[in-house]
Amino acid sequence: MNHTELVERWDRQQAAYISHREGRFEAILDALELAVGTAFAVVDLACGPSSLGSRILSRFPDARVVALDYDPMLLALAREHLAAHGDRVMFVDADLCDPQWTARITDQLGYRPQAVVSTTALHWLAPSELVDVYGQVRSLLDPGGVLLNGDHFRFDERTRHVASWSTRHDSATQQRSFTEGADEWDAWWSLLAAHPHISRLQDERTRRFSGRDASPPTTVEFQLAALRQAGFTESGTVWQLFDDYVVYGVV
């Protein structure tokens, strides 16, 4: 299976877990254009196979993308997926828990980016790690720059009704998607592990993530408080569907 098929199946698999995923992408792209125009450099944090990065490059011909990830298998797939964009995209293999990751960005790019984005990724960070990363992003960005983070932010006991609606909505989306042939999470990873050029990275991936457990879910209120704590002058939400949000911070 080639990289195009793998990314297409990744997108279908992710859409099973993220209802109206394309709507979330559109919200991020629209906010990017309104915030920083159409010619900018943007860092895609924990980019995965770069579904968002490819959409940015396609919509904004004068944009440059720095695709950063610590997962060697996903980063290898992103390299293949975005190869046609040439020097408009750079790849950085870095761990967001290592505070030196921002230096890797500025060394390669040569200047401060105008934007940082992320989708369905930063929830893997522990809350304290997320606050640190938000602070590092704020220091990395050009003055007036923007951070846009799309992810699930869970409800708590104060919002039991909408939490129930959200759970039922997610379940219905997954059931429909899997019935229509979307891969489940583990099934997609089995496909990636069979890729002839990427399978050799599986042991390294296991080594890097050994002992790193999923972090507890956080609310959108926590996200906004973390952005304020990090020093963003303005923060809020630009998009929401049940527990799925796009939050922003402006330097």
From TrEMBL:
Molecular function in Gene Ontology: methyltransferase activity
CDD domains membership: AdoMet_MTases (cd02440)
Boundaries of every Methyltransferase domain copy: 42-145
InterPro entries reported in the protein's UniProt record: Methyltransf_25, SAM-dependent_MTases_sf
Top-level lineage group: Bacteria
Signal sequence range: none
Residues forming coiled coils: none
Ribonucleoprotein keyword on record: no
Keyword tags: Methyltransferase, Transferase
UniProt record, GO biological process: methylation
Cell membrane found in the keyword field: no
Annotated Gene3D superfamilies: Vaccinia Virus protein VP39
PANTHER family: TRANS-ACONITATE 2-METHYLTRANSFERASE, TRANS-ACONITATE 2-METHYLTRANSFERASE-RELATED
Protein name: Methyltransferase domain-containing protein
Lineage: Bacteria, Bacillati, Actinomycetota, Actinomycetes, Mycobacteriales
